[in-house]
Design a protein that fits this description.
heterotrimer, A alpha/beta, B alpha/beta, C alpha/beta, A: alpha/beta, eleven-stranded mixed beta sheet, ten-stranded mixed beta sheet, 27% helix, globular, C: alpha/beta, nine-stranded mixed beta sheet, 18% helix, ATP hydrolysis activity (chain B), ATP-binding (chain B)
Amino acid sequence: MSQVKETVVKEGIDQATVDVTRELETYKHGFITDIETEKAPKGLNEDTVRFISAKKEEPQWMLDWRLEAFKRWQEMEEPTWAHVKYPAIDYQDHYYYAAPKTGSKYESIDDVPPEILADFEKLGIPLKEAEVLLGVEGAGQTPGEARTDAGVGGEGTAKQKVAVDAVFDSVSVATTFKKELEKAGVIFMSISEAIREHPELVKKYIGSVVPTSDNFFATLNSAVFSDGTFVYVPPGVRCPMELSTYFRINEANTGQFERTLIVADKGAYVSYLEGCTAPMRDENQLHAAVVELVALEDAEIKYSTVQNWYPGDKDGKGGIYNFVTKRGDCREARSKISWTQVETGSAVTWKYPSCILRGDNSVGEFYSIAITNNHQQADTGTKMIHLGKNTTSRIISKGIAAGFSDQTYRGLVSVHRKASGVRNFTQCDSLLIGDQCGAHTVPYIEAKNSSAVLEHEATTSRLSEDQLFYCMQRGLNEEEAVSLLVNGFCKDVLQQLPMEFAVEAQKLLEVSLEGSVG
Amino acid sequence: MLKIENLHITVDETEILKGLSLEVPAGEVHAIMGPNGSGKSTLSYAITGREDYEVTHGDITLDGESLLEMDPNERAAKGLFLSFQHPLEIPGVATMNFIRTALNAQRKARGENEVTAADFLRAIREKAKIVGLSDEKLKRPFNVGFSGGEKKRMEMLQMAMLEPRFGILDETDSGLDIDALKMVGEVVNEMRDGSRGFLVITHYQRLLDYVKPDRVHVLAGGRIVESGGPEIARELEEHGYDKYIQSAA
Amino acid sequence: MRPNHQFTEFEKALIASMPAEGSEVGTILSDTGLPSRRDERWKWTDVRAALREEKQPSVQSVSSRAPLLALDQPIEFLFANGHLSQAPASLPDGVTLSRGGGYPLFRENLPNIATEKAEATYVLTVSGKLDRPIHLRFLSEGSGMHHTSVQVVLEEGAEASVVESLEGGEDAWFANGVMRFTLAKGASLERLILQQANDDAVQVHFAMANLAAEANFTQGTLGFGSKLCRLETQVLHEGEGARAVLNGAYLLSGRRHLDNTTDVGHTVPGCVTEELYKGVLADKGRGVFQGRFYVAKDAQQTDARMAHNALLLSDEAEVDAKPELMIYADDVQCAHGNTAGALDTEALFYMRQRGLTEAQARAMLVQAFVAEAFEHISDDDVKARLTALIETWLDQQTDGGTR
């Protein structure tokens, strides 16, 4: 009996390999928009930094800040500790600024070049308010209310209102829902605009979570960041809609260096969604973003990412190098920061969304699904730094490796001397599909307070053949069975995603794993 | 013998007991009945001295001596025993070793001689039979893998071994079948004499068929709201706690 | 050489003591120096910082002392400050003692230095079933440094038990030891490491075990730390069906530091590793646990499990843990768990309600916590002696007023 089952699955693997190969050639978002762009001269020196700052009409303090970062960066070494391999990056062989030539500011959505709008449409991003509104169903429900266990990704569930700030290469092209947000007092605009319009806020918070000296990539970003998003939610305000930015890299050899800064003032709440896509190109493109979150007393920030940058072709050619620094600061008491990420793209990912739990009773969460296939490499995880009393954190990481890919969960839970009453629970599960890939778990746990209760669990396994067989005996085909089981494996994380993303994420899981049965 | 005067207990900044007074004379069995959340377990923890149960007013005395400044083990050595509502599993700790260490620690604190290994073994085997625990169970780590009923039997075994002067049974009946209830009755009735007291905390009347109380008190909203004879228990069984919940509110 | 590397007096003297030419170990040493927190594998155990001042070679004699662990009819070898000063006049049948050499280098340089600087690499070869334990007593005292290198070879089907006691006298000595275990097909070795030293001593004791098919390697460790102590074991499953058990406990008080590092490689299918470490930290004790399972592509049907649990008894104590999985095969069962926390207050209250004093209750819970790491030990006498050592440690904590 078991012999028969073996054979069935083994045959499936061969078919699977074929299917995976086919799938890899069809990166859905890999189209290139044909518009003229204006670029900074290739390469990186002090003039590049001045050029970017001037293009953005930045005040002197911002330029000084950038120049100081650039000075530091020149003295830094690229980190090598992550479990990823890639050819040396020639930082002089990139463009550090690219903007659509028609100019960066649009009076209204109608001024946006139709090619760009069409591009976003292809990406499935509703840019025009009307389009968004058409998609609104059951608005006013929170994602939690709208969702049942079975409903994750299910069709026909409620859609949320979403305000979109789209970053097309380096410039934010349009912002929707601006008026409604303004009414609530929420500031949601590109960081370039914010530097001009709200310098006092930007100056106060930028670099306060990720200092310019933080790490090689963050420092580089500080020097040359091109655009990004700024959100400020005033005291006591619950942001009336989900905010969303879609990042997209279009121009060849353009490094994209977004800078995102989100501040939730006392008692405020905001949920932010970030999505990323990039066209298919043979050369590797560099992406080094910095995201800073600041939650003041009783504030809550929920930050969700679906990352499906181009992962390169089946031989590992091309794809994005994604070196991101994301960090949240629970700066005051009872604040909460929650990171949720679905990582399916990029050739190389280096990313550790972290929480500094400074305020007493603050809460940090990290929910992650990472899927790597072909020759993708991902080294991702989180850091939970417990500084305040009674701070709690929760880490749920689900890694799925297929093809020739290599992925690592790397996480730190650190409890400082004076942080009494700390709780952490960490669970890292890895699933290997096929015998040419690798899945690794590298947790660091540092406890300096006896009242801490820290629990860490990790497992590595493959899809259960018994479960696969069971599903197939009930009539599911192999792909459906794999998809069902992988979804089950990821359920704890999928449930954390806002509705808008849950559907997309689940589709992504299916696409990324189609046919890859192990 | 046990006297509680105007006891106020605060847990996590919430006042649970709000002026509870109670006296159990030597030789008597008193029952405390009350709805869920009325503070029954808080009372048992407060008497035995659990940390975080802050006494803000009042006093608890045993034979005229205040217990409030004493550590839990000092209270135990004075003869207080609590049969826990939810007995713990303590992995890695051998059952026999634990009970013997407890017994000798109490004896030492009272200035008595330690019990020899042989005497202890004889006594525990005999009493294990009464409570219905096999030798094999005694050899396991403390309560590890025991059923709910077995854990309650282990509580009764310890009470029989430690021979306290005052026993508190906190919902010992929950989760027990008729045979086990009878066993609890046997152990308590065997120990009843003119100098020992018992406080039986329960939600239901059924244990009181086996352990006949001299007095029954109704605890609601952190106070004793009614006291009387065993008839109160029967009345509660018929009519429930509604009238007390309302009157306490 | 490392950029901006300032050699310490210790490093300079050690480099100078290496052969002038032809020493690859010396070349590496003068290139990288001693491991420090800048090295990923030593980030929590900075040997370089612990050994700054120059050290002379230790004198080759020590004062006699009773063994830390009394064994029944041991085959005893005594290393006094690195010098083999006592060995049995005759060895039982099936055991031979010889000198070895020509070993390939380890990735870590300290064991390479030990091999090169030791007076010899002593090789104990065992065939058949040995019914008496081999006791390797490593005694250290004084303020010098010394190195030892011992290899234990078990021939096909052989069975033996080896106890290494790392026993320390007074003063700030540095002991650097390397052990090599080679288990042929079906061989079975029970290894026990016992470590106790003073607050000033620095000790690194490294072991590599190569397991052929169906070999059984069982290791238990009980350590009490020192100024800085690292006990490292690397295991390589090289034949199918091999099995390794790596268990250990550490109890640290004062300012003692103990690092238990293990690295287990599965290169062939069907091998099993079980690992359990328990740590108890009082005062300013600092425990480090690093565990790694590496499962190569061909090592299907690997079953590897690791757990580390630490109990913090003091607010000034620290535990750092890195349980790591590196998995390249898909049909495997690998898991690790790590916990850190204080004693269960509910259990403490329960026990005190029964009459135990707080110290008694704590001691009993700590004993119970640690005992699990020694359940695999087959010899009840040895187990009882380890328990007694733990009891002694616990008594000292109570006497010292540690709560």
